[in-house]
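Question: does this match?
>
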Amino acid sequence: MRPSTLLVAALLAALVTGFSPAYSADLPKRAMNDEVFRNAKGWLIFKGDVEPGWEHRNVQVYKRLCKGCEWKLVKKVETDAQGRWRTRVYAPRTGSWYWKGLVPKAGGYGRSVTQTWRTFVD
């Protein structure tokens, strides 16, 4: 090998073995304070309050069609100046759908996830 290739390989090995980033599981989670409720018009509303420090940033809302199905990103909802967010969610005519909100790892906090909510028509 050429000396430059050896140097790059040595630097890469030192970087991989000597640098251990904080994993999301090791970091504290943000409080999501979430709920799903029916408003006066009969709509299902998924809302939450991300604390601390998630003002004017996006909360990712995911849906899945069954318990074993994949989560799919449905929308990104922006929080207000206090970290509050809300969006309308739906229920299928038959069966049920599952919903969750997610805030990615940022600012010294790990990835934070809401409860998983199941919507259905009674």
Summary: DSSP finds one helix and eight strands in the chain. The chain has one domain: 26-120.
